[in-house]
Amino acid sequence: MISLTDSQKIGMGLTGFGVFFLFFGMILFFDKALLAMGNILFVAGLSFVIGLERTFLFFFQKHKMKATSFFLGGVLIVLIGWPIVGVVLEVYGFFLLFRGFFPAAVGFIRRLPFLGSLLNLPFISGPS
Questions:
Q1: By Cβ atoms counted within 10 A, which residue in 14, 24, 32, 107 is the most buried?
Q2: Strand, coil or helix: 2
């Protein structure tokens, strides 16, 4: 089992609550307060999990500046009060930031019992 420090456990909780608030805010027709709370908790949780320095280095790499601009700009726009535009910018920035992790995540999901068999169907898995 993976051992986590206390700050990483706190970070996992904050990140989980952040994702919950973001999801719940979208379910409730883009509620500004819930989305803002979710954004703040998600970014704070991420920095607790991987550390402040590594979070800063991750977001502000030269080749990720466009993605960081979209993601943090979307957070700012949600905080200003335009939730739909902000969430669209955040999602685009999120995909640009984490696109390197998606193949690894899909590879992991392919090894899970039920989801793996769904992802290996011919019309989902793509051309071989």
A1: 14
A2: coil
Amino acid identity, position 107: G
User: 122 lies in a domain?
Assistant: no
- Whether residue 71 is predicted with pLDDT greater than 90 in this model: the reply is yes
Which DSSP state fits 29? T
Total domain count for the chain? 1
Measured CA to CA, the distance from residue 118 to residue 113 in angstroms comes to: 9
User: In the structure encoding, which two tokens stand for residue 41, read together?
Assistant: 């908790």
Q: Report the percentage of the chain scoring pLDDT > 70.
A: 96
Sign for the CA dihedral angle at 106, 29, 86, 79 comes to negative
Show the 3-state SS of 60-122. CCHHHHHHHHHHHHHHHHHHHCCHHHHHHHHHHHHHHHHCCCHHHHHHHHHCCHHHHHHHCCH
- pTM attached to this predicted model: 0.81
* Separation CA 83–CA 6 (nearest Å): 33
Tell me the residue range of the domain where 71 lies: 6-117
